[in-house]
Amino acid sequence: MTASNRLLVFAFTDPVCTWCWGSEPILRKLQVCYGERLEISYVMGGLVADIRAFYDPANDIGGDPERSNEQVARHWLEASQRHGMPVRTEGFRLFSQQAVSTFPQNIAVKAAELSSPELAPGFLRRLREASAAQARETGRQEVLLEIAEEVGVDVERFRRHLDDGSANEAFQADRELAQQYGVRGFPSFLLRYQGREMLLPGYQRYSAFERKISDLTDGNLKGQVPAATPESILKFLRQYGRVAPVEIETVFELSPAECEEVINELSAQGQVRRISAGNGVLIEGKL
């Protein structure tokens, strides 16, 4: 597969956006079903510059940082019931008087890209998990450094890119790209294929991606759903690390009951473990 025949997906995102978290099953399915024919790049959009000056009328979020934590937690829990990804509201504290923005999390992703490019997607994923499913205070630099270390990012280089402004400069370039394409909400997705482009604003179902990809590529690219065997699901877990059950259900087109049956089988064999994650669980393959 040459670069010119590869579909590029630019995912405009913020590490602490709940519908970006909810899009993880769809992005996983795109990666699995289209394989090397598709490449996903993440563009950091920066959802909240300052929560004190921010207001989301649809969800009544904004203003005082401490009050906003209650509003965001309630919104995330409601969204979780729709998109299926786990959320922890107990101890949730995304904002404080010292942490009023989501920009630090966005900048941290760029620092990971500059420090250890191959590990940056894993850093973004773990950052989403830490924020949504573990209620860690990811706006604090010490927590961001912990997450970098957890996924194997070169922590000294990571810290240097945070401190010398290079990560922020890369973040500002991402914001300019979002502005260039008129992106006003997250997630949004830009599909690019052989010089042709298509923007999909907002949360999207996999079926919507399928239709748009077919239109953009004149039917030349089609996804293939993998067989839902315990072996293929275990391979998926080992490739992506921790996943929520809804990600397995989405990728392999299983019902919740069918997914639970496979997880139970793999768990009985000692192949996977369940990790408590707020109102749900994450499944992790054992090495």
From TrEMBL:
Pfam family, one: Thioredoxin_5
SUPFAM superfamilies found in the cross-reference section: Thioredoxin-like
InterPro entries: Thioredoxin-like_sf
Protein's recorded name: YjbH-like
Species of the source: Halorhodospira halochloris (Ectothiorhodospira halochloris)
